[in-house]
From TrEMBL:
Motif ('KMSKS' region): 236-240
Record-listed Zn(2+) binding positions: C97, C99, Y119, C123
Note on how the cofactor is bound: Binds 1 zinc ion per subunit.
Lineage start: Bacteria, Pseudomonadati, Pseudomonadota, Betaproteobacteria, Burkholderiales
A GO term from the CC aspect: cytosol
Chain residues that bind L-glutamate: R7, F8, A9, P10, S11, E43, Y180, R198
Name of the molecule in the record: Glutamyl-Q tRNA(Asp) synthetase
EC number: 6.1.1.-
Keywords recorded for this protein, A-Z: Aminoacyl-tRNA synthetase, ATP-binding, Ligase, Metal-binding, Nucleotide-binding, Protein biosynthesis, Zinc
GO MF entry, a single one: glutamate-tRNA ligase activity
Family label: Belongs to the class-I aminoacyl-tRNA synthetase family. GluQ subfamily.
């Protein structure tokens, strides 16, 4: 077994809310429980959605919670050259695509297919002369090779048919930004991540990432997807649904943020902690109780 390396990789689209604190906490506790390395990566590939100064705010919020990363923070916006390298390596499977979102949805309707999101393969065999490519897509395999399965440490056996459920997916977007799927795979490999712990809103991306890892010759990490925090309307907490910074105005992060986040993760702390340092000790023990005994999958190495 490789030495444990985990990470938290927030997008700086706003301050950390309760949902992102829960994700940060889960990855941090898993790293601590394995006596491993924990890294922080700022996923600021989409300059238009990134909010100036949000990265600093995120860093400070994590520090206030007593969370410490073990190596230098990386910013995806500074790593363009590495994504270009990966795109070059993927050349045999990549094709330019000139379709707009609307064209994709329309052609799905014409073909009588239900999900408007799935790419119907329009530009697979080339684009018309005089039309400019807007995006670059990865051709997904047909048949058996399109079925990706993996084990999730919490959710168990997972399965996705890339060709039926996703279609050829974007690596470089029409607006020139690198796609999340490519950035995350390249950086997880660069940071030698062995264990990914993140929200289950990203479960659906995992098969695409595993497929990219296989084409690029990277190893596949262990995955654990934790439940996402919803608001009262049942929507995932996010900046779009108006989630507030978890530490806004709080003078007692232990009781206002850390304990409720641990409770959301169903961690049973043996004693009520009286300090942040104590919280992390007790929560790490509770994490071990939960994940090292029930599952048998994630014993410390
Ligand atoms: Zn196209």
């Amino acid at each position: 077994m490789l030495p444990y390396r985990g990470r938290f990789a927030p997008s700086p689209t706003g301050p950390l809310h309760m949902g992102s604190l829960v994700a940060a906490m889960a990855s941090y506790l898993d790293a601590r429980a394995h006596a491993g390395i924990w890294l922080l990566r700022i996923e600021d590939l989409d300059f238009e959605r990134s909010v100036k100064g949000a990265d600093r705010e995120i860093i400070q919020s994590l520090q206030r919670c007593g969370m410490q990363w073990d190596e230098e923070i990386i910013w995806q916006s500074a790593r363009t050259i590495h994504y270009q390298d990966a795109l070059d390596k993927l050349k045999p499977w990549v094709f330019p695509c000139a379709c707009s979102r609307k064209e994709i949805a329309d052609s799905r309707v014409r073909m009588g297919l239900s999900n408007a999101q799935i790419y119907p393969g329009t530009c697979r065999n080339g684009i018309q002369n005089g039309v400019t490519a807007k995006a670059f897509r990865l051709r997904v395999p047909d048949g058996k090779a399109s079925e990706i399965h993996f084990h999730d440490r919490l959710l168990g056996f997972q399965w996705q048919d890339l060709s039926a459920e996703v279609g050829d997916f974007v690596l470089k977007r029409a607006d020139g930004f690198w796609a999340y799927q490519l950035g995350v795979v390249v950086d997880d490999a660069e940071q030698r991540i062995t264990h990914i712990v993140r929200g289950s809103d990203l479960l659906d991306s995992t098969a695409r990432q595993i497929y990219l890892q296989s084409l690029l010759g990277y190893s596949t990490p262990f995955y654990l997807h934790i439940p996402v925090v919803n608001n009262a309307d049942g929507e995932k907490l996010s900046k779009q649904t108006g989630a507030l910074a978890f530490d806004k105005g709080s003078k007692d992060l232990l009781n206002d943020a850390l304990c409720p986040a641990a409770e959301f993760l169903n961690l049973r702390l043996s004693t009520k902690p009286t300090s942040i340092t104590q919280f992390w000790e007790y929560a790490t023990d509770a994490w071990k109780q939960k994940f090292f005994t029930d599952q048998g999958q994630s014993r410390p190495q």
